[in-house]
Amino acid sequence: MVASSSSKRPPPCLLLLILAVSFLGYSSARPHHMAGDTVAIDVEATMMERFQRWKAEYGRSYATADEERRRFGLYARNVRYIEATNAAAGLAYELGETAYTDLTNDEFVAMYTAPPLRSSDGDDEVAAMAFITTRAGPVDERTEVYFNESAGAPASVDWRASGAVTDVKNQGRCGSCWAFSTVAVVEGIQKIKTGKLVSLSEQELVDCDDLDSGCDGGVSYRALQWITTNGGITTRDDYPYTGLAGAACDRSKLAHHAAAIAGFRRVATRSEASLANAVAGQPVAVSIEAGGDNFQHYVKGVYDGPCGTRLNHGVTVVGYGEEAAGGDKYWIVKNSWGKRWGDEGYIKMKKDVAGKPEGLCGIAIRPSFPIM
């Protein structure tokens, strides 16, 4: 657990020396292979210097020297993994240091994703069968499921360029990703329909949405249902984000409606064409499997896995496009892990993967969007 440092800390240079000695000091007692030992010490000292710079950049400190040593070891292991992965031929994306380079992947997944829904909780197969429309054009808004596999969508879309996307936010150590993706799509449709971009309250959903489970997870279409029933949602300024679980709902804010929606639509599951047509009209909330080592350390490029379909993270598709070099098609995905993860808080995820109707990482299994 990362904690604030004590007010009495040794100078950085002394701390670096103590840590280096803790890891490598034993080598001075070995009379043989001196040249190799010197190289090893130089490598580790360089890694320690990188670690100190990384700590300064990301404002990281630790409660004890033991914890610092442990985190240095994890950081070094992750850096070696990042460098080895980037050196492999054929990778369409790049890994790098982020705010989470001192975590094991298990820690990262536990802190920043939510448990997948139990099969009894999901109704994705119902969504796949419930549509009543044609492949020729948009679905009538009176139906519950949006199914549109027409070829009329633009070649590329980026709702950021239209001013319909707020800044990347940070959910912290709360499994509230679903609230962030829900708020993002309501913010988007309100901007598209009214011209006003307003940052809305994720914490109101975490505290008050009784269809979902706060910091223990949720699903965007349920949260959209809650907003519809409540008559709207308030602003982030009015109901600020704390990332804390178990707080009582501030019911005095429930009637403060900065944005209201008329309902929502599920996008037909396992139809990337329908997802693309939906995204052409507005940002769309999706669920994905996130949290593998490569996902943890992603910094740029078109991510093409590895990942499965254990949907444990809610994100927002705010557009799509195609790389000029190589022609890889991708979704533009807004995450909620802050701007110091990924490509300024975003990830490009490979689009239209052959043989995967569910989409990469399950992105086409559970999309939804609000109507206004």
From TrEMBL:
InterPro entries noted in UniProt: Papain-like_cys_pep_sf, Pept_asp_AS, Pept_cys_AS, Pept_his_AS, Peptidase_C1A, Peptidase_C1A_C, Peptidase_C1A_papain-like, Prot_inhib_I29
GO terms for molecular function, please? cysteine-type peptidase activity
**What keywords would UniProt list here?**
Disulfide bond, Hydrolase, Protease, Signal, Thiol protease
Domain named Peptidase C1A papain C-terminal: which ranges? 153-371
Q: Which domain of life is it from?
A: Eukaryota
The record, for Pfam families, names:
Inhibitor_I29, Peptidase_C1
Keyword check for Hydrolase: yes
| Record domain Cathepsin propeptide inhibitor: where | 51-108
GO biological process, alphabetically ordered: proteolysis
Give the signal sequence positions: 1-29
- Please report which protein family the annotation says this sequence is part of: Belongs to the peptidase C1 family.
Name it. Answer: Uncharacterized protein
Organism name: Leersia perrieri
Q: What is the lineage of its organism?
A: Eukaryota, Viridiplantae, Streptophyta, Embryophyta, Tracheophyta
